[in-house]
Write a structure and sequence with these properties.
The protein is an all-alpha fold. Helices cover 80% and strands 0% of the residues. The protein has twelve helices and no strands. The chain has helices at residues 2-13, 16-35, 43-68, 70-76, 78-83, 89-118, 125-137, 140-152, 155-172, 184-190, 194-206, 213-240. α2 runs parallel beside α6 and α6 (89-118) packs antiparallel against α7. The longest helix is centred in the middle third of the chain and has 30 residues, at 89-118.
Amino acid sequence: MLGYVRLELVRVLRDVTFLIFGVAMPVVMYLIFTTLGLAPGDEKQVALFVMVSMAAYGGIGAAFNNGTGLGEDKALGWVRQLRLTPLAPATVVAGKTITGMVVVVPAIAAVLVAGRLVNHVALSPGQWVSIIALLWAGTIPFTLFGLGNGYRLTSQSAGIANFAASMGLAVVGGLWIPADRFPRWLKAISEWTPTHGYADMSWRVAFGQAPSLRSVLVLLGWLAVFGAYALYGYRRAGRAA
């Protein structure tokens, strides 16, 4: 599996579009929200909240992007070739998930570095480490969701579906506008989304609190759902190849 992961990483890192939009876009959005004063409130708190939000958004976008090219892989026969190898379906999905966990790092790190250098966000070493770890590990469900779409859909359809899913979940999850400002019914929905659970853990750490058990359980629940979806998608794609 390590050889497979290495191959997938090389393929992803050669994608200039991903490096530009997947890494640069969250940083640009963070700077727009903070330096132009588009997010109301205390400057320090806004810089901290938006930093975590945009780092989460960057991680989610990179995670979904990992599955977008699978439609093209199917058309080129790559999925068929994988079915002929000794790799089990769960191993292939795990390999792509590991790839996704690697490629999200630049997107997350870029926003956090911008927060520290541009807005002088100050946190304890323990908070920085905890936020990085939570933002990194928490992208696994979104990687699996993107893989499921990639295995089930064509290349063009997967790209549209993954973009729509990442944007929709980011908005409803409160990454663009805090969920506290939503209508009551929308806030109730937001709290059950994977994006809110994902970002909420890091928001709490950033403001000196411990991650809530509810957010952890919500994210783990979606992890199980999206994992089953990705495995199902790979098996169906292999049979259709």
